[in-house]
Design goal:
Helix 3 crosses helix 5 and helix 3 packs across helix 7. The longest helix is centred in the middle third of the chain and has 39 residues. This protein is mainly alpha-helical. It contains 13 helices and no strands.
Length: 358
């Protein structure tokens, strides 16, 4: 039975000493340029995911804004939503609420990818031990290999683990972003009720003030409105996301006859496709979450909030799906291309510390 440790230069091979050991901690606390390279190699997953997340989020944010508006309010089509947003809010309207996601999505992705990276090695070892055969990650790194049920299970389980854990951090940020994106539409709603001042109070506020406004009207736990739907969406969606990315990349590498598991074309195509696959599967859950969170934002604390049902295969639950899939394709193509490129460059850096000890 082959294990990941038996594969030379594995993706998470950080050197002879395990991360977090006393020797490792002592080394990192010693200043010097050579230690910066060593640190970069240790935390390359976080560095690569953080830098790539900023780039992809800023580039595709207008599509995310349009998607959210089309889910929350009834526009006939993409063009009508774009035209209405431009006329009522100007070009800045498409980036309204972008500050929170740039920081939150970057932080969330850094943590999410780190959790995923560690989880897939744990699951790979557990599957290898349970089956008595080669670990899934050994199979994946073998030239010419194709996905197996165990490799898909490994990536899916690791993705679900990362998605479920990170929801605790991402939910308040996503609610704040949604509030900023639809604040003008909420204020201009045709309905008239005692909740009008609440709906109007979200206009023209920055990220921090929007969050404080939610706390004012809904209490601290108001920042976690829609948490269960968010948890369900991210657990399922992230499992599909990573399983699709890793498996598609593996297939494309085999078709290309490439010796590298991260050839640029396979990474770009797999990145775009994993976003399409995950959103196609979870979109009604995301729509239900958006509706429920919009209803929560429109109500004062103590007011009853209408629940949203998850309804698959109903046309009105897929409003904005095309925009969302286009956005996801763009984001993930940029993200994974940048992520794998940066990580590969960091891997190529010399590690003076390990070389000196060798």
């Amino acid at each position: 039975m082959a294990r990941v440790e038996d594969v030379p230069d594995g993706d998470d091979a950080l050197g002879r000493r395990p991360p977090g050991s006393k020797e490792e901690t002592k080394t990192l606390l010693t200043p010097g340029p050579e230690h910066a390279k060593h640190w970069a190699k240790m935390y390359r997953t976080g560095i690569a995911s953080g830098a790539s997340s900023v780039l992809s989020t800023v580039t595709a944010f207008p599509l995310d804004s349009v998607k959210t508006r089309m889910q929350a309010y009834k526009y006939r089509n993409f063009q009508e939503c774009v035209e209405h947003t431009y006329k009522s809010e100007g070009i800045k309207g498409f980036w309204r609420g972008a500050v929170a996601p740039v920081f939150s999505v970057t932080a969330v992705r850094m943590v999410s990818f780190s959790i995923y990276q560690r989880a897939k090695y744990k699951y790979s070892a557990a599957i290898g031990k349970a089956t008595g055969s080669d670990e899934p990650l050994v199979v994946v790194n073998r030239p010419g290999s194709i996905p197996t049920p165990f490799t898909i299970l490994c990536f899916g389980a690791a993705g679900a683990t990362a998605g479920s854990i990170i929801t605790c951090v991402s939910c308040p940020f996503e609610l704040t972003k949604l509030s900023a994106q639809i604040s003008t539409l909420m204020a201009k709603s045709n309905t008239s009720s005692m909740d009008d001042p609440v709906r109007s109070s979200y206009q023209h506020k920055g990220t921090f003030k929007t969050a404080m406004n939610i706390v004012t009207h809904r209490g601290f736990f108001g920042l976690y409105s829609g948490f269960r739907l968010h948890l369900l969406r991210d657990t399922i969606g992230t499992a599909i996301y990573f399983a699709t990315y890793e498996s598609t990349k593996q297939i494309l590498v085999k078709l290309q006859g490439s010796d590298s598991p991260t050839s640029p074309l396979s990474v770009a195509v797999a990145g775009g496709f994993c976003g399409l696959a995950s959103w196609a599967c979870i979109y009604p859950i995301d729509t239900a979450k958006t509706h429920y969170q919009r209803n929560c934002l429109s109500k004062a604390r103590g007011s009853p909030v209408q629940r949203s049902k998850i309804e698959f295969f109903r046309r009105n639950q897929y409003r904005g799906l095309g925009v969302s899939m286009a956005r996801s394709c763009v984001i993930n193509t940029i993200f994974f291309s940048s992520f794998e490129f940066i990580k590969k460059k960091i891997n190529q850096l010399p590690d003076p510390i390990l070389e000196a000890e060798g």
